Amino acid sequence: MHDSKRIRVLALGLIRDRDRLFLSQGFDPVEQRTFYRAMGGGVDFGEHSRDALQREFREEIGAELEDIHYLGCLESIFTYNGKTGHEIAQLYRCRFIDLDFYEREQIPFLEGKRSKLALWVDIEECLAGKLTVVPPAFLDYL
Predict the structure, then answer these.
(1) In terms of DSSP bridges, do strands 106-111 and 114-122 run parallel, antiparallel, or are they unpaired?
(2) Which of 6, 63, 81, 141 is the most exposed place for a label (fewest CB within 10 A)?
(3) pLDDT digits (tens, 9 = 90+) for 106-127
């Protein structure tokens, strides 16, 4: 997933629809814990983070975005699969162009060779701590 000696730069999209958020589901096999993170992915060298956000959504779930607005930068030092990771994420508020994405409860996709799931989750469950959202500072932007 990541080289523990490097800082990974990400572009993430905050997509909200009334009382729900569109997030990607992850699982830490060492901690046996499910967690949720905004959709997006790595920024390539020479690529603007906004362009990376659009590319990642297109590649992973075939979605085009609109109304993209920069919100801020999140920094996260964490442990995943027993290894320390360090990420800097540029966070954008955005919307799906295709309204069908708001009707789909779950969207399976591949991240490299790993099967993942993007889904709509209840904001209140996130804010109440019933669901683990990473990085935690993401919730400050709701």
Answers:
(1) antiparallel
(2) 6
(3) 999 988 888 999 999 999 999 9
